[in-house]
Design a protein that fits this description.
With 156 residues, the protein is an alpha+beta fold. The protein has helices at residues 6-12, 71-88, 112-121; strands at residues 25-29, 43-48, 50-59, 96-104, 129-135, 145-153.
């Protein structure tokens, strides 16, 4: 998506383009209960006429950066971390509009436990657009999946 398409996308979502917002606040932080990386933010929100919540690379990491061994265990922990981060941003599962799921060695594993966790996470009628991408590895050795999440929270 190019920067030129953002105003049209935001208009469809009922939001004002960021460049037109007089008072836009961008907040980047690492919520308590998640790992505390130094090189990136666990959570970014953009507030003005509504709030966009961007969760980059949520994974099955514990706060101490340890991880379970199996895809099924990592998937469950990943969705727990996503829920925690959404709540920290004042968002809910219903606000999620897009997910991108990266699974290591997708051609040679059974991804069904991860797929079922996606189905179980979202309430009926609130399914985001999504894509699943098979990758050879992720940045942290041992991770079997990682998920990017985008949510839109309207101002009520």
């Amino acid at each position: 998506m190019t920067m030129k398409t953002w105003p049209a996308l935001l208009a469809v979502l009922g939001m004002t383009p960021l460049s037109a917002m007089a008072d836009v606040e961008i907040k980047r932080w690492n919520p308590e209960g998640l790992s505390q990386p130094e090189g990136y933010s666990q959570l970014v929100t953009i507030e003005g006429a509504g709030k966009m919540v961007l969760l980059g690379g949520k994974a099955g990491l514990r706060p101490d950066d340890s991880m379970p061994d199996t895809l099924a265990e990592q998937s469950k922990l990943t969705w727990e971390n996503i829920d925690l981060a959404l709540k920290a941003a004042g968002a809910a599962r219903e606000d999620v509009v897009e997910i991108q799921i990266y699974i290591v060695d997708l051609a040679n594993i059974d991804p069904n436990p991860a797929y079922q966790d996606v189905r179980d996470f979202f309430p009926a009628g609130h399914k985001p657009v999504s894509m699943v991408i098979g990758v050879s590895a992720l940045a942290i050795p041992g991770l079997k999946m990682e998920i990017n999440v985008r949510a839109i929270v309207g101002n009520d």
